[in-house]
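Slides due. Your pick:
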Amino acid sequence: MAVRHQLIRRPPHALWDVLCDPSRYHEWVVGTHASRPGEGDWPKPGSTLLYTVRFGPGEFEGTTVVRRHEPPYALELEAHSGPLGTARIAFDIRPWGEHTLVVLDEHPLRGVGGALHNSAVDALLQLRHRRLLGRLARIVEESAPHGSDERAPDRGGERADA
């Protein structure tokens, strides 16, 4: 299991606002070339986003499904990566003073990824997560004005601070 954390210098609702936009995932998810909304009302449970990953001249399509949605404190996703199988990706979003501590926990669930999961795979995930969380922090910090206490409603009609 690969668990990593990052301090984001904005309140939880600012992070939640970025997580609520499926068209922005490719901006911070390492290895993803493009992302777009799929079915349902992202990020409500059962909704999907579609993504494209490029490996050299080849590319493949994947789907991510929301499994848990508790704004603005928890989002759990299941990424379906074709022949590699599926992975659970959980964001635990914690207020940390006026900032946010986000804990990312990812592990393979099914398919080849689950069968071959070991400490070497976790080490690679740790490197990927370091870059992913760094990108996510930068995007959130650039998207939300510093010191903003304005709470935006999430896309599910609930308030992000509820």
About this structure: Confidence is low (pLDDT under 50) at residues 150-162. The CA atoms of residues 114 and 153 lie 36 Å apart. The first helix runs from residue 12 to 19.
